[in-house]
Write a structure and sequence with these properties.
The chain has about 90 residues and is mainly α. It contains 3 helices and no strands.
């Protein structure tokens, strides 16, 4: 659960960071890059933990990281889009 929440927040933060770039008008790209960035970070963190004594890598943590990143980026995109005026 902690991985899901942490990477959900990371998905939101990546989305916000990518909004400062030229692709800010391409919502699908913002979502895609946010999810991929947070997911790659999560995967690399699990690989790193594999080599640290006393820690272990867990496939379920990777799945929680990716699902959290997906939900975070999609939630933030939904939140931003509902605040924009229509028309």
């Amino acid at each position: 659960m902690l991985h899901f929440v942490a990477y959900g927040l990371m998905g939101i933060l990546f989305y916000r960071a990518y909004q400062t770039l030229r692709l800010k008008n391409y919502r699908q790209m913002l979502i895609f890059f946010s999810i991929v960035s947070a997911s790659v970070y999560g995967i690399s963190d699990e690989i790193h933990q594999y080599f640290v004594p006393g820690r272990n890598a867990d496939l379920f943590d990777v799945v929680a990281d990716i699902l959290g990143a997906i939900c975070g980026a999609l939630f933030y995109q939904w939140w931003v889009s509902r605040k924009q005026p229509v028309g």
